Amino acid sequence: MQYIDFVKNTNHLNITNLIGRIDTNKAINEICDVKFYEERNQKAVDIGVDANIDGQNNWSSFTLFSKSGKSSDTISQGITLNENKESYKQSLRNLRTHQWTEVANQFPYTVQWIQDNLCPYIKLSYVKIARLGPGGHVPEHNDKPNVSTANMKTHSYDMLNTILIELTGQDDLYVTHDGKQLKYKAGDIYWINVAKNHEVKNNSDSDRYNIRIHGLYNTKFREMIKKCYMIK
Questions:
Q1: pLDDT, tens digit, for every residue of 17-75?
Q2: 3-class SS letters over 26-51
Q3: DSSP class of residue 207?
Q4: What pTM did the predictor assign?
Q5: pLDDT tens by residue, 65-80
Q6: Rounded to an integer, what distance in angstroms lies between the CA atom of residue 172 and that of residue 91?
């Protein structure tokens, strides 16, 4: 199987053994420290910007890395559909101006872990921390672009394209992806296709946190995947 066929036809991979496990206690402590700090200063950075999904509740996010350098910038990506080499190069040019946000210096462990474990493989577009509170629900949806892809044989928005770092992994977390129920474990790293329908509901009595990372994957990353999964 060719690499491009593999990433197009695979919807979900656990790549923890390739990337390394994050210390979830340190990452969550940084999130809580910032939340409490911002609450004292009435900035409420933990509120972030909700996505426009009907029925969604008790979900919020902010970014550590974004196009504007603002933590409230959770939407912009800078990545084109990347159906060919030239569009890939354009995405690289777009990402040159993306930067760590104004709250990133309050996350020294998390930022350093990303720089050490992911930046050797990825040109970052955004790094988003999301919270789903107790009873919170993100109904089934997909993250497809609002453009026509009918004439494209392949494009980067409908393949493995997003890294998800699970920080809490509660037993009472209900997650489905492309019609299958999944069990996320705290500290695990997943590579997922967010163009496929997915849903999450937090049935626990504690906050669920994860980190979502989007960017362009380099040759080093592709070669690592090829070697691990014995593809061409």
A1: 999 999 999 999 999 877 644 443 334 333 333 456 778 888 888 899 999 999 888 87
A2: HHHHHHHHHHHHHHHCCCCCCCECCC
A3: -
A4: 0.88
A5: 999 999 888 876 777 7
A6: 38
Please tell me the distance from the alpha carbon of residue 34 to that of residue 30, in angstroms, as a whole number: 6
Q: What is the rounded distance in angstroms from the CA atom of residue 62 to the CA atom of residue 47?
A: 7
Could you tell me the two tokens for 25? 């206690």
- Please calculate the CA angle 102-120-67 and round it to the nearest 5 degrees: 30
pLDDT digits (tens, 9 = 90+) for 166-189: 999 999 999 999 999 999 999 999
The total of structural domains in the chain comes to 1
CATH value at residue 102 = 2.60.120.330
Closest CA to 161 of 5, 3, 12, 2: 12
> Which structural domain, as residue segments, surrounds residue 82?
3-229
Backbone angles phi and psi of 208, in degrees to 5 = -105, 130
